[in-house]
Task: structure prediction
Amino acid sequence: MASMKVLVIGAGFAGCCAALLLRDSLGADVTVLERERAPGGMLRTLHTEDGLAYEYGPRIVSVFRGTPDILPFLRRYLVLEERDIYQGTRLRPDYPVVPFPVDRESLMSLPCGAAVERELAAIRARGQPPGERDLRDYLETSVGPTLTALAFEGFNRKFWGRRLEDMPADWGKLRRLERIAERGQYRLPSEAPHYYPKGGFNPLFDRMLDGFDVRCGVTVERIDADGRKPSALTDAGTFTADLVVTTAPIDALLDRRHGALEWRGYRVEVDRVERGATPPLGAAPDGIPFAWLYTPWAETPVCRTTDIGVIHHGPRRADRDGQSVLLREIVDDSVSMYPVWWEDAKFLRYLDDAVRLANVIPLGRLGLYKYTTMDSTYAMARRLADSLDDYLSAGPARRVEILRGVRGDWGN
Result:
């Protein structure tokens, strides 16, 4: 019996995982099409004009919201070097850095500390659950007006483009924004150590795609699912398969018939850090330099700054074998990185239409309109491979149910 012919559109991490898992679990004959000149998507290690390495998308590996299986999976292809990834936030330009998420002990050391403490004491005395009228009501009745203004209001206007009054309380409840630990930690929260791959991320894609028919520099213009088998019409000809898995944007797949889905994202500005320089973002009390620093006030367009040198080489200045990159992330809504809650209904209309395409399945951050980490992307691809037989034999309603399960939720 001939093996299933599968066409994967997009050679980012989601597409690479899909290609590998479908070949290994089904014995599929897989062709991968990639618009760029090399695979990797947003995970690819990039270089400045003078050769300094940095990452635009994910920068470290750990277990955040997906599956711990990501670590042994990646170790098949990479050497993972452990890192201490510390993050902090400077709530105002003249404030010192405190842990992120914020904690009560650190807040008490800030100029706003007395006001925050009075408000938290009043909230505890009332003994009422947080309000649910909108996100402002939720935050002000759980962490108080002062912390709401400093930590959330400016950032929400800057990044999400929304007032707190225009966002639902569920946004905060889902993310547990009401939690303030008594004593915080600077370490980036995760369920496993943090790692950076020795030599960067690029070798991952060469090794994952070894043995596949990979066509880079190919732009898919349209997917035709009207015939007996789906086809991808590209600037390099037509590719026909038994199954198409596409990591392209789901609204583009369907000609944006319901309107374009909105995203939030950022562009980056790159500065150079000299070898042996003092950590540009400062250090925590234990001496570990900050890898990430958030700047939530509205007056600066910068949302977060990343010291790539700490991630690539570790915390010791002596380990930096040369210059490194300091990366500033600046709001840019033309970048499709973070889906927005107010587009959920529109996305579900697209999903309902997509399942009616014969043997065409959307996947990944763009295909299923979900912010993902490496562990949640791998978990998503595994769920697709495990449910593929059920999906292909199901009707539209069951297919929507399956793809919603493949997509997962905030926790996975």
